[in-house]
Structure formats: structure tokens, C-alpha cells
């Protein structure tokens, strides 16, 4: 089998949402506990009339809710991520993934190096490690049959 995609690139907006999902997925219990603790702190502060604790609890909520999205937005718009937005084409065979950047750079990885695959919205993330992955847009294939073959390949390799 050989699947060749059309040339694609990711938008900064899509990249931001992929990073947001990666940051917050699986951590909902932590956010719920911290939110509950903040609410308890706010309730105690208001009931005792201690507005210093109220401001600290509200500040904690603001920091928790705002820090990660702001830092992710800064990362997405930094010059360090320019390579993520380069136009690229993928060639997928039974045993390898080849990424061809528009600049002429070609990287080939055996599918055995991919540890897992996750689908976030319109993108597949193919992980080489916990922090290193490739994105493959789900709609970059020539047709529905090629997209289905790709999905079946990931399932066959126990990645998806």
C-alpha cells in the first residue's frame, strides 16, 4: 500500500487548539479539584468577611485559567515554530511515514517508531515520543477511500 497526500500546512489557529487539547486532556480531574478548592476559599473568605483571601482565591483562578492559554499562544506565534507551518506532503506505506517539506527536506520514519496515534478534530497526531509528534490532516488524502485506508493502517498497527 502507498498513500500520498496533497501538499498541506497547518494554520496557527489549528496548531493552538491542538496544543490546548494536548495540555488539558486527561487533566480535568486536576482542574476540577483546583476549581473546587478555589470556590471553597472564595466562600470562606466571603462568609468571614476576609477580602484578602477572596482576592488571593480569585487570583489563583485567574492564573490557572489564563496562564496556559497565554503561554501556548506565545509559543504558537513565536519564530521557533515556523517549521510547523511549512507546507508538506506525506507518503505513507505499510512500514514507513515520509514527510516531504516544500523546502526540499525529506524525513522518513519507520511506522514501528510511532508509539501512538490520536485524532484531535480534523488532525491525526502520530507520536514518536510523549512530546514529539507529526500532525496529519484527516482531509489531506486524495479521497475517502485513502483516508479510510490510513485509519485502518493505524488500527492494524494498534496505534489508534
Topology:
Elements (H helix, E strand, L loop, with lengths): L1 E3 L7 H13 L3 H21 L2 H27 L10 E6 L2 E6 L4 E5 L5 E5 L2 E5 L5 E5 L6 H13 L4
Antiparallel strand pairs: 1-2, 2-3, 3-4, 5-6, 6-7
Helix pairs in contact: 1-3, 2-3
Summarize this structure as a short list of keywords or feature phrases.
160 residues; alpha+beta; PH-domain like; 2 domains; four-stranded antiparallel β-sheet; three-stranded antiparallel β-sheet
What would your notes on this structure say?
Helix 1 (12-24) crosses helix 3 (51-77) and helix 2 (28-48) packs antiparallel against helix 3 (51-77). The mean pLDDT is 84. The longest helix is centred in the middle third of the chain and has 27 residues, at 51-77. A hairpin with a 4-residue loop joins strand 3 (96-101) and strand 4 (106-110). The protein has two domains: 2-8 and 88-156, Pleckstrin-homology domain (PH domain)/Phosphotyrosine-binding domain (PTB) (PH-domain like), CATH 2.30.29; 15-80, no CATH class. The chain has 160 residues and is α+β, with helices and mostly antiparallel strands. The chain has a four-stranded antiparallel beta sheet, covered by helices on one side. It has helices at residues 12-24, 28-48, 51-77, 144-156; strands at residues 2-4, 88-93, 96-101, 106-110, 116-120, 123-127, 133-137. 46% of the residues lie in helices and 22% in strands. The chain is built from four helices and seven strands. It is elongated, with a radius of gyration of 21 Å.
Amino acid at each position: 500500500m502507498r498513500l500520498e497526500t496533497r501538499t498541506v500546512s497547518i494554520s496557527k489557529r489549528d496548531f493552538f487548539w491542538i496544543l490546548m487539547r494536548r495540555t488539558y486532556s486527561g487533566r480535568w480531574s486536576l482542574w476540577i479539584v483546583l476549581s473546587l478548592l478555589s470556590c471553597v476559599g472564595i466562600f470562606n473568605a466571603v462568609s468571614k468577611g476576609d477580602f484578602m483571601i477572596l482576592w488571593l482565591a480569585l487570583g489563583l483562578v485567574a492564573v490557572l485559567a489564563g496562564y496556559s492559554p497565554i503561554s501556548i499562544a506565545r509559543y504558537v506565534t513565536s519564530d521557533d515554530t515556523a517549521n510547523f507551518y511549512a507546507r508538506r506532503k506525506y507518503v505513507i506505506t505499510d512500514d514507513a511515514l515520509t514527510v516531504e517539506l516544500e523546502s526540499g527536506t525529506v524525513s522518513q520514519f519507520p511506522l514501528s517508531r510511532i508509539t501512538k496515534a490520536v485524532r484531535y478534530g480534523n488532525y491525526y497526531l502520530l507520536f514518536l515520543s510523549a512530546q514529539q509528534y507529526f500532525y496529519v490532516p484527516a482531509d489531506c488524502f486524495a479521497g475517502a477511500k485513502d483516508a479510510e485506508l490510513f485509519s485502518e493502517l493505524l488500527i492494524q498497527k494498534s496505534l489508534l
